[in-house]
């Protein structure tokens, strides 16, 4: 056990501003999800068409991530964050004024791109400001604020839609975003402008094509797009390992700590997003709760995750991300294993205890693994590291969600008990693999000597 060095007040303020931007991006996603039905009715389109409002945002976010490391080196992380926040606010205005569904979908894709750059640049600002020995606490604080967004977003969105039309969901971004922008102008360091190496345009084209197609096919399951995306990504990986200055430095994944950290983040994302899809349906289909009641019953788990992200940050600075993440993974696995055997006659207090424990484990497992990845690289490599972690997290989430939906839909043909039993079995297997990955990460941290001072 080591004594964590203190964090200066200026760093806390800068981290708080970055957290406010992250909160804004997360809240926008959760609020827009609540408003999809209202948008569909007002714009006169089908459910399949309006779902593209959410899908386009995700695809835009994925497409923007690969170029962010180059932009960080070119403009400076803090300066890039300000530009990305400005773009997010402008596209929010454009979405609110969109006259039809097609225009709204197009601006949502641009808003997703701005969000992807903002999230990655914000994490880079924090990493550069605090250094590896203090990263856990600052990332924990960031996670606490950002994690509140999906908890409060649906409630705020429902209240606004009860009194106003759907554009108000995008206008809400302005006061929060302008506050964050004003604070950032005063408190966030801009970062140094540099002369990065030339962009590997063929590599950028390959990943910009392949990554969104991969995310899309994991959620929509289109065989043709899956094949094109797989070929593009394979060509990108091959090229990135051969060129001198790749768009994304995939060689980082071969580092002793970075490799297991990325594996841990991938599986944690798969388990978390898979549960996000399965648990609300479980309450409604298997346990007989209504949609509003299901949301209330799931809230304690989300709050537990949010609180324990802050706890995890402090523990990570003292014990290392691998140890904390392994503890959280074991807790998540222990709370997931009993779920397949719980039916309508199960006591609600037992279900709530398991879900709160699971939420606490999630808070202890995800953030420390990503923090370990950031702490294992030099300052000049941090932009690549943050982009890699965010890409892996989203690919894992899309894969986990798709796998759980496929298994659940096929199992439901034999009845709710079978369908949810299979889905929770998949979640348990993912959690077990995640536990193995975090054990690997803990071992790597204890046996590796990492120089992050370059």
Automatic annotation (TrEMBL):
Entry similarity comment: Belongs to the major facilitator superfamily. EmrB family.
Localization per Swiss-Prot or TrEMBL: Cell membrane
The protein's name in its UniProt record: Drug resistance transporter, EmrB/QacA subfamily
Lineage: Bacteria, Bacillati, Actinomycetota, Actinomycetes, Pseudonocardiales
Molecular function as annotated in GO: transmembrane transporter activity
Gene3D superfamilies: MFS general substrate transporter like domains, Multidrug resistance protein D
Pfam families per UniProt: MFS_1
PANTHER family (UniProt xref): MAJOR FACILITATOR SUPERFAMILY MULTIDRUG TRANSPORTER MFSC
Recorded GO CC terms: plasma membrane
Domain Major facilitator superfamily (MFS) profile: 14-446
InterPro entries per the UniProt record, alphabetical: EmrB-like, MFS, MFS_dom, MFS_trans_sf
UniProt key word Transmembrane helix: yes
Top-level taxon of the source organism: Bacteria
Keyword terms: Cell membrane, Membrane, Transmembrane, Transmembrane helix, Transport
Source organism: Amycolatopsis pretoriensis
Transmembrane segments: 12-36, 48-68, 80-99, 105-130, 142-162, 168-187, 199-217, 223-241, 261-282, 294-312, 324-343, 349-375, 387-408, 420-441
Record's bilayer topology term: Multi-pass membrane protein
């Amino acid at each position: 056990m080591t004594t964590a060095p203190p964090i200066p007040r200026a760093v806390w303020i800068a981290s708080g501003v970055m957290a406010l931007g992250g909160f804004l991006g997360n809240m926008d996603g959760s609020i827009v999800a609540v408003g999809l039905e209202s948008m569909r009715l007002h714009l006169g389109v089908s459910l399949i068409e309006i779902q593209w409002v959410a899908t386009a945002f995700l695809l835009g976010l994925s497409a923007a991530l690969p170029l962010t490391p180059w932009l960080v080196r070119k403009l400076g992380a803090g300066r890039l964050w300000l530009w990305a926040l400005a773009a997010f606010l402008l596209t929010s205005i454009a979405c609110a004024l969109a006259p039809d569904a097609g225009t709204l979908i197009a601006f949502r894709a641009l808003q997703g791109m701005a969000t992807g750059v903002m999230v990655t640049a914000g994490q880079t600002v924090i990493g550069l400001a605090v250094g590896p020995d203090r990263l856990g606490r600052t990332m924990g604080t960031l996670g606490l604020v950002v994690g509140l967004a999906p908890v409060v977003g649906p409630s705020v969105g429902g209240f606004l839609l009860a009194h106003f039309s759907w554009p108000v969901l995008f206008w809400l971004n302005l006061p929060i975003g302008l506050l964050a922008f004003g604070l950032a102008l005063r408190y966030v360091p801009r970062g140094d402008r540099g002369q990065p190496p030339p962009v590997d345009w063929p590599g950028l084209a390959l990943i910009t094509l392949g990554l969104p197609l991969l995310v899309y096919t994991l959620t929509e399951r289109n065989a043709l797009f899956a094949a094109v995306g797989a070929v593009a990504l394979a060509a990108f990986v091959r090229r990135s390992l051969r060129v001198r200055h790749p768009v994304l430095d995939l060689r980082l994944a071969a580092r002793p700590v970075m490799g297991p950290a990325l594996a841990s983040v991938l599986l944690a994302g798969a388990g978390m997003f898979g549960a996000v899809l399965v648990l609300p349906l479980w309450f409604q289909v298997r346990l007989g709760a209504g949609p509003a009641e299901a949301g209330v019953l799931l809230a304690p788990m989300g709050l537990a995750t949010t609180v324990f992200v802050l706890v995890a940050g402090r523990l990570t600075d003292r014990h290392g991300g691998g140890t904390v993440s392994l503890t959280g993974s074991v807790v998540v696995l222990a709370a997931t294993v009993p779920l397949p055997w719980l039916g309508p006659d199960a006591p609600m207090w037992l279900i709530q205890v398991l879900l709160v424990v699971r939420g606490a484990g999630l808070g202890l497992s995800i953030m420390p693994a990503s923090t370990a990845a950031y702490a294992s690289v030099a300052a000049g490599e941090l932009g690549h590291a943050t982009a890699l972690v965010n890409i892996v997290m989203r690919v894992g989430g899309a894969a986990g969600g798709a796998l759980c939906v496929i298994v659940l839909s096929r199992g439901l043909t034999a009845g709710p008990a079978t369908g949810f039993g299979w889905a929770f079995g998949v979640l348990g297997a993912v959690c077990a693999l995640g536990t193995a990955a975090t054990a690997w990460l803990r071992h790597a941290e204890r046996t590796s000597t990492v120089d992050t001072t370059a």
